[in-house]
Structures are given as C-alpha cells and as structure tokens.
Amino acid sequence: MKTMYNAWYKFGTPPWVGSARNELVRLVEEGRLTPGRAVDLGCGEGDYAIFLAQHGFDVTGVDFAPAAIAKAKAKARQAGAAVEFLVDDLTNLRQQRGRFDVLVDYGTFDDLTAQHRSAYLRNVIPLARPGAKFRMTRRQSWT
C-alpha cells in the first residue's frame, strides 16, 4: 500500500488533495478549535496542516509517502506557512514529537485494515494531551 500511495503522489494528484474541508474551516473560524499544537495525521500534500498553520497553530504533518511530504513542503513554502513535515508510519510511529492539542485525520484511518487500525490507535492516542480535540473525517467515495 505504501508503494501505491507514494507513486500516486509522485506521478499524480489523489482526489482528496485540495484546500481544507469546510468542516475544519468552520471549526477554526467559529473558534471551536483554537490555536495550539496540532498534528495532521496522514497529511498527504499538507492542505490541512497549511491551513492550520496559517491560522496560528504550531503544526506537524505526518505521512508515510515521501512524495506526499515533498509536495507538502513545497506547498507550505509557497504559502509561507511554517509546518514541520515528517515521513513516518502512523501504525509504527518512529518520530514521536510530543503531545498535541488538536489531531486531524482526513481519511487515513478509513484506509487501514482492522489490524492496522489497532496499531494506529496505539500510536496516535498517546499523541493527545489531556483535553485534546480529535477531528476525524471520513472520505467520500471517489466514484
């Protein structure tokens, strides 16, 4: 699966790439998500991470596809957004960056098998500070 996603990002643009989704924008604009440390789990090309950084969050983006992270870094530079992007696997996290106030996941959990979902949860739950907010959005069908 990693090879497929990396190739997709390297040679194309997956259908979920684009600006931050309306739900996240609304939460930030309404003040329901306030600036703090945030992590974009399975950040792809970094659209959520960049949006959050532009709204005062200290953001880390994590994805296992090096091609996605390369595109995310380029987008962030172009947008003037300070985001730390890491190539890492959320089911076997190697680069723990502390605890976060806000965690966002747009469709990453959906793509995992039951076994990988358990590993994801074992790795992601410890990233949340007490009282953290976790925004998990399911992807819509591409067809």
List the helices and strands and how they pair.
Blueprint: H1 2-11, H2 22-29, E1 37-41, H3 47-54, E2 58-63, H4 66-79, E3 83-87, E4 100-106, H5 114-124, E5 128-137
Parallel strand pairs: 1-2, 1-4, 2-3, 4-5
Helix pairs in contact: 1-4
Name the shape in a single word.
globular
Beta-strand residue fraction: 15-25%
Number of helices: 5
Mean pLDDT: 93
From the helix content, strand content and strand pairing, which structural class follows?
Answer: alpha/beta
Q: What is the fold named in CATH at topology level?
A: Rossmann fold
**Largest sheet, described in full?**
5 strands, parallel
Low-pLDDT runs of 5+ residues are none
Give the topology string: H per helix, E per strand.
Answer: HHEHEHEEHE
Strand element count? 5
- Largest sheet: spatial strand order: 3-2-1-4-5
CATH homology superfamily name: Vaccinia Virus protein VP39
Number of domain modules: 1
